[in-house]
Design brief:
Blueprint: H1 3-30, H2 35-64, H3 66-90
Helix pairs in contact: 1-2, 1-3, 2-3
Length: 96
């Protein structure tokens, strides 16, 4: 494997991790707001995160080439799969 692919996979994992942490912070802050304000807050932060993530991926492709960009997307998908598998094993009971 080339260094661009390995670097892209790691970079994609870091982008996913940052995105997930920002989502958790957004949801934590939104729970203290009124329902209407919380919806606006979550939606605005979602689009902001989406724009930042798209910009990061575009800059990664422009800066390091298409293999790094494709590996970045692959790293994000791999991180999402790992996250979903780990959450599935937790067997969380959502009832209070």
């Amino acid at each position: 494997m080339s260094i661009a692919i390995i670097g892209g996979l790691l970079f994609g994992y870091l982008v996913f991790d940052l995105n997930a942490r920002l989502l958790l912070v957004t949801l934590e802050r939104a729970k203290d707001k009124a329902p209407g304000q919380a919806v606006k807050y979550i939606v605005s932060r979602y689009y902001l995160r989406f724009a930042i993530e798209g910009t990061i991926i575009c800059l990664a492709v422009w800066w390091a080439g298409r293999f790094f960009g494709i590996a970045t997307l692959g790293g994000m998908l791999l991180a999402k799969a790992v996250f979903l598998l780990r959450v599935r094993k937790l067997n969380i009971n959502y009832k209070d």
